[in-house]
Design brief:
Radius of gyration: 21 Å
CATH superfamily of the largest domain: Putative cyclase
Number of domains: 2
CATH architecture of the largest domain: 3-Layer(bba) Sandwich
Number of strands: 14
Low-confidence stretches: none
Order of helices and strands: EHEEHEEEEHEEHEHHEEEE
Shape: elongated
Largest sheet: 8 strands, mixed
Length: 242
Amino acid sequence: MSFGWEPLPVKIFRFDHKEGSRYVGGPLGLSPDDFPNETGPAVEELTIHSHAGTHLDAPWHFGPTVAGQPAKTIDEIPLEWCYGDGVVIDVRHRKGGEYITLDDVKNGLKKINYQLKPADIVLIMTGGDKRWEFSDYPNASPGMSAEATEWILDQGVKVIGIDGFGFDRPFKKMAEDFKKGVKDALWPSHHDVGRRKEYCHIEKMANLDRIPRPYGFKVACFPVKISKAGAGWCRAVAIIEE
């Protein structure tokens, strides 16, 4: 089984309970008859890219060093970075392929009367997740400008999330601009900011519009620890206390 709307395809092969008795029992010299009703445990085999689905990008993904020091891989990310006060910045006025500017970020914060503080987890709402099951999903969202990303980090933030396919603008748009002579068009938040300032970002988030308030909630986004990897899957959760 594969998921066609994921540009980095995920494949899942499912062993049902009948097959599970052979899958688990065979290497142990057991037959299906040895299991109750010839049924064993159901299991799955997955082929998956580290950047498939909602995932946390580590500094190592951006480059080998940050400010001259070795970049952290996903298994080295401090857990305290991945749990904190959340704030949603609404930039849904931006179209696919456009930059999310510093003014967009500042105006979004002004609208909700919020000032960023160290260790906040900032969530950028583009609305791109609503195109998840459509072929235009990779190109449906705007992307962060280097200036906007750097300003957020300068407030003491370590994790920024976005509900689009990527954190920067769509790959196709960046490549088009680069070929036109815009030399800093390629992954500015990844390769410019991320190699100078240590941070993580979450890509392919969803349902930020379902969080009932723009701040006053917690975010948990702990990544799966993959040894020496540049990213790890995470189940990002907003925790709202009544």
